[in-house]
Amino acid sequence: MKKFLSFLLCIGCSFFIFSQQTKDFTGISLIKIEHLSNDAKFIIGENVQSITDEREIQPFYMNAFETSYIVWYNIRTEAEKTLSYTFQNPGQEGSKGKRGKPPTEEAQWQPVTTINWRDAIVWCNALSELEGRTPCYTYNEIVLRDSTNAAQIDLCTCNYQANGYRLPTETEWEYAARKNGALFQPGNVVSGVMAESNDTNSNNLENDYCWNDENSTGTANIGTTGSLFGAKSSPGSGNPNKMGLFDMSGNVLEFCNDWYEEYYKQNAFADNIYYDGPKYGSARIVRGGSWSPFASYCYCGDRYAFDPDESYNYMGFRFCTTKE
Known about the structure:
The protein is α+β, with helices and mostly antiparallel strands. It has helices at residues 2-12, 69-82, 117-130, 150-153, 170-178, 200-205; strands at 30-33, 41-44, 53-56, 60-63, 92-93, 112-113, 137-139, 142-143, 157-158, 179-180, 183-184, 210-211, 249-250, 253-259, 284-287, 303-306, 315-316, 320-321. It has a single domain (2-14, 25-321), classed as paralog of FGE (formylglycine-generating enzyme), CATH 3.90.1580.10.
């Protein structure tokens, strides 16, 4: 994986020189997320929703970082050139970049934004195929390669047993955000901060783990919260949560696989251990908050929903896979 991406990064960025701090950085680091015996099931939406739901978790791998623009751009353009992929939105560097333009030295490691949910899952398929993995997203067993085909994409299926890349389910996302090694963060918390939001210690720490309205005016380089030099610090130099995941709260909202639905008390996992919401819907789940609101809108249990066609400069994604 790293060898393949390093090759693409070198090709895509031959027009400028990497700094010493970032020349070996790829923006890709798959972290294994697995439960201990005492937390195979957990309460999703705790302290945020009036009705919560008990969810079960299966082992999976999540990227430590939100998808940076340079990684997005190089995979997108390579897939368009060699595999006939089509994307509705070309994306941009963070909150202030120019749509579809080549990466710049100043903002290449900011998260990709102004893409929609459909673009994100088709990009995951592209990365899977370029790596020789089995794509997860299909429609009638046909691999999805065109994010402008809304009818097919909105009725697609995700093969969770495939070794390709995909978006996390909402359950996987919240578990990874709350998981802190052997501990688990309950209540209203920024990912990585163990104290609840009504604790003064939490208020002092939130800005060290979350780019939000109080400490930013736009997106930051991925993985830089709490860094000495702020948003323009070297990517990956900031504070991850105890699982090694960066920016699970703040920077950009992150797409999840699920269609939106209210939580229910009954166990939705009776027939599907990879529960990803209802079969149909009108809006997809996004998690994690962004640079735009206060940290109190970036808590682990906060959930929002957007039409799968919507794209903004505060929404992006990170990918995961069931098999490394």
